[in-house]
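Students often ask why inverse folding is considered easier than folding. One informal answer: many sequences map to the same fold, so there is more than one right answer. In these notes we will look at a single instance of the problem. The structure comes first.
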């Protein structure tokens, strides 16, 4: 994250990078395009000049002129005025030379002309380009120089037009891209500012604003808000947990300290109090041990997930309870049900439910444990015929340390933590737990877990 005072380097901003990249792309595209257009124009001008020259030479070759006079007349008819781009020289066998209009001066300078390396047909003098061709006919050598200046002017115009067009496109495109990129980064910058305010616990900022567009930023903001919400719930739960846990632990601790003080003060004079107090200390410390062990189960991470044979685990737990409560448990376990998770956590779920069912019913009453599955769900049902749970308490028994009035007033021992642990674990596996009344009496606990 960017610290408030840390300066953002302009060159690293998305806005700047996007603009630079777009302009570079544009320049490359326009340069390639204009080079292609210019090359094509040059080639087509060259080809058309070549064809025209060929035609001219063919017609001169076909003439039957032999003498200087005849050639001069011929040239005059072919090159009628001084606007023509063609300059012809005919060297006769006799050594006499005939020029078309204004051609002599040009041919006098011809030895100083430069030639293009790519094609020898293009020559130039003082930046004036010409197409050059010479042929030998019967008793004469004919040379033609075609002025290309006008054509090159067209090419020059095309080049300068493309340069101007490129500049316009770059300036316009640059400004538009810069604006567009600014629009995108504006929402990101605002998001950053809001996250800063959130991290500083600014009271004005409790959530990120979720813009409608761009969708990407809207999605990030939405996910971030969900994260904050989840974190807040978890922090709230943790706080409540610490308050509840310390409260629950304080009661036995105060009692333990009371008995320790009693032994200290009166132990020597009245040794008969010692065994009673030690008995109490033993019981209370055991209760604390169980409480702490249960609390730690929920805090454990999801490390060590593996494939568990749930049917086997339920069977084993039933056998474990049958040792202490013979003939009270009825098993209806479908075999071969497996799922991925932490064995110890599933053991906690089954054990807490079965233990409660036995605890909150009479000695002779049966508890039925059913495990079954269909294609999508695993269902665990624990049914007892015990004291039942009132409708008011059904929604509260999953709260940490909550005990229904009946069980508080009756002398059934418990800490009120078991069902809250079951609930947390079932939720952790994205399952659900419900309580309903058994007829004529008792409770039905139903856990459904999605098959993974
Ligand atoms: P504990 O049993 O240690 O009190 P639990 O969290 O396991 O704590 O249960 C919370 C409360 O829900 C119990 O105190 C009891 O009032 C009620 N309860 C749980 N299971 C049953 C049951 N099978 N029948 C009747 N009441 C139950």
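Output (designed amino acids):
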């Amino acid at each position: 994250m960017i610290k408030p005072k840390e300066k953002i380097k302009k060159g690293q901003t998305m806005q700047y990078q996007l603009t630079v990249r777009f302009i570079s792309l544009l320049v490359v595209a326009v340069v390639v395009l204009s080079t292609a257009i210019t090359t094509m124009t040059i080639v087509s001008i060259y080809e058309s000049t070549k064809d025209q020259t060929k035609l001219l030479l063919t017609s001169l070759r076909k003439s039957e002129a032999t003498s200087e006079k005849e050639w001069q007349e011929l040239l005059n008819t072919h090159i009628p005025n001084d606007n023509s781009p063609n300059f012809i020289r005919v060297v006769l066998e006799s050594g006499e030379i005939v020029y078309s209009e204004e051609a002599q001066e040009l041919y006098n300078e011809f030895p100083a002309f430069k030639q293009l390396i790519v094609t020898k047909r293009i020559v130039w003098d003082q930046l004036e380009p010409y197409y050059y061709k010479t042929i030998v006919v019967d008793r004469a050598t004919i040379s033609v120089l075609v002025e290309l200046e006008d054509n090159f002017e067209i090419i020059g115009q095309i080049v300068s037009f493309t340069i101007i067009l490129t500049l316009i496109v770059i300036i316009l495109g640059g400004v538009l891209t810069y604006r567009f990129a600014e629009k995108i980064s504006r929402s990101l910058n605002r998001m950053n500012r809001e996250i800063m305010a959130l991290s500083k616990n600014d009271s004005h900022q409790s959530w990120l604003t979720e813009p409608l567009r761009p969708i990407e930023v809207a999605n990030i903001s939405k996910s971030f808000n969900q994260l904050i919400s989840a974190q807040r719930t978890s922090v709230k739960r943790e706080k409540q947990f610490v308050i509840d846990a310390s409260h629950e632990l304080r009661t036995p601790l105060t009692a333990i300290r009371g008995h320790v003080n009693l032994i200290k003060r009166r132990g020597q004079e009245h040794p008969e109090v010692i065994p009673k107090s030690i008995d109490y200390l033993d019981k209370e410390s055991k209760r604390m041990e169980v409480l702490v062990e249960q609390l730690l189960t929920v805090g454990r991470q999801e490390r060590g997930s593996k494939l568990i044979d749930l049917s086997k685990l339920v069977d084993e737990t039933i056998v474990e309870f049958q040792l202490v409560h013979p003939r009270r448990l009825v098993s209806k376990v479908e075999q071969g049900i497996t799922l991925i998770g932490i064995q110890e956590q599933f053991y906690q779920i089954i054990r807490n439910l079965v233990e409660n069912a036995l605890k909150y019913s009479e000695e002779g009453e049966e508890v039925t444990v059913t495990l079954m599955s269909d294609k999508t769900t695993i269902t665990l049902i624990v049914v007892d015929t015990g004291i039942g749970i009132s409708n008011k308490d059904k929604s509260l028994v999953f709260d940490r340390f909550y005990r229904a009035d009946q069980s508080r007033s009756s002398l059934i021992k418990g800490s009120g933590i078991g069902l809250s642990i079951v609930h947390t674990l079932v939720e952790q596996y994205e399952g659900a737990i419900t309580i309903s009344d058994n007829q004529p009496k008792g409770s039905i606990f139903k856990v459904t877990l999605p098959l993974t």
